[in-house]
Amino acid sequence: MRNFYLIARREFLTRVRTRVYLIVTAVLVVAIAGFIVLLAVVNNRSATTVQVGFVGASQALAKPLAAFSGGGLTIQTQTVQSVRSGEEQVRSGSLDVLVSGDPAAPVVEYKSQLDSTVATDLTSVVQDMVFRQALAGSGVDPAGIEAQVAAAGFHGVTLDPNAAQQSQRMVVGIFVAALLYVALAGYGSFVANGVVEEKANRIVEILLSTVRPRELLFGKVVGIGLVGFIQLVLLGAVALVAVMKTQAITVPAVGVTAVLGGLLWFVLGFLFYALLYAAGGSLVSRQEDIGAVTAPIQVVILGSYLAFFWVVANPANPIGTVLSVLPPFAPVLMPARMATGDAQAWQVVLAVALMLGGIVGMNALAARIYSNSVLRVGSRVRLADAWRGRT
Questions:
Q1: DSSP classification of residue 70
Q2: Among residues 253, 234, 211, 242, which one has the least CA distance to residue 367?
């Protein structure tokens, strides 16, 4: 454990103190916060507020008109002392609409163009006013009819209570899948590069004179994994704070679930894939050859990300469910399905259990390949030879 701790600590401190890591982390923090703020600004701009002033008797239309607020339109009403004062406010832009005169046939003034929704709402209010006046003129009490109308209604039945949240969940799910794809592929490559670098400059020979290959392998994986984990924790915290401040997501639980699920699956996915990357890196001695041995791993991670779009488009398809619980695909698919709300609790538990078993198996496989090939310098080591320990 002491050797493992020293190796992990060395890997962590060496990388977390680099200027590149600090700059990239700062850029990512700014980018995520800026994206969420931009999303909130776009959402706020889509909402329209109309200021409507009323003069004299037309104030009877103010309360009914304000009741039409909703669906991205907010109607704010206020009383204006005179028509001249109201017209000046319309010209200056402090008022959008001025209503004056008889409530049954009001005069509506605006600067250049009247919002079509406001025009429709005003027409409905005026027609209702004329209707009530006609009832009163014919000797019918409008209050009784209004009470009956107000009591009328319908009984709503929600067939899909999550439909209103689905678009937000989908955006969060895509973001989580993309971030995990980049993190797993990026930090996995760091592990492979680190193994090849130590092998090329013969530092690994010095290290293996005092520690066992398994200790060196797992210490390197955990040390680099902690670097990525801290970066993701920081990004997740910034994202949650930005969401709460801007209200870009109206369902806070979605953001919390996405962050916690993403962190859990980064840890599991990184341990699984980093061991593969380390084993692949131990097969070559030059940086130029890393791409050849890590390409299959990259393809699997990329395939998991691309499969996400098909899986969320077909949430009831059993093939998508099976893919999301299998170790090679679960680190990207399962946290994304958790964010979209498609993953059931038993599926998450099963995926975690299978992933833990996959990590144990991958550790044994990677340790054998790493131990048999990390000291062999020169041409690329064949996988079969690395498995058998053949020189």
A1: B
A2: 211
- In 3D space, the residue among 203, 358, 385 whose CA is nearest the CA of residue 272 turns out to be 358
User: Can you give the three-state secondary structure of 216-263, one letter per residue?
Assistant: HHHHHHHHHHHHHHHHHHHHHHHHHHHHHHHCCCCCHHHHHHHHHHHH
Q: DSSP letters of 2-15?
A: HHHHHHHHHHHHHH
Residue found under tokens 């409905």: 124
3-class DSSP state of 285: coil
- What number of residues does the chain have? 391
Do residues 275 and 221 lie in contact, with contact meaning Cβ atoms separated by under 8 Å?
Answer: yes
CA atoms of 161 and 99, how far apart (whole Å) = 40
pLDDT along the chain (391 residues), means of 10: 84 87 90 81 67 90 83 82 91 90 89 84 87 78 69 57 63 81 88 86 82 85 90 86 73 68 88 90 86 90 89 84 91 85 89 93 88 81 77 55
Residue 73 phi, psi (nearest 5): -120, 125
Distances, alpha carbon 147 to alpha carbons 63, 75, 104, 197, in Å: 17, 25, 21, 82
Q: What is the pLDDT of residue 248?
A: 64
- Integer angstrom CA distances of residue 381 from 134, 212, 215, 322: 95, 20, 22, 35
* pLDDT for residue 352: 94
> What's the token pair of residue 25?
């982390």
Tokens of 234: 């920081």
Alpha helix ranges (H) inside 247-379:
252-281, 290-313, 318-325, 330-340, 345-373
For the chain, the C-alpha Rg in angstroms (whole number) is 32
Confidence (pLDDT) at 390 = 59
Sign of CA dihedral 338, 166, 69, 135: negative
Domains of the chain (ranges; CATH) run: 2-42+169-388 (no CATH), 47-141 (3.40.190.10)
Task: List Cα–Cα distances, 135 to 64, 139, 243, in angstroms.
Answer: 18, 7, 52
Beta bridge partners of 54: 79, 99
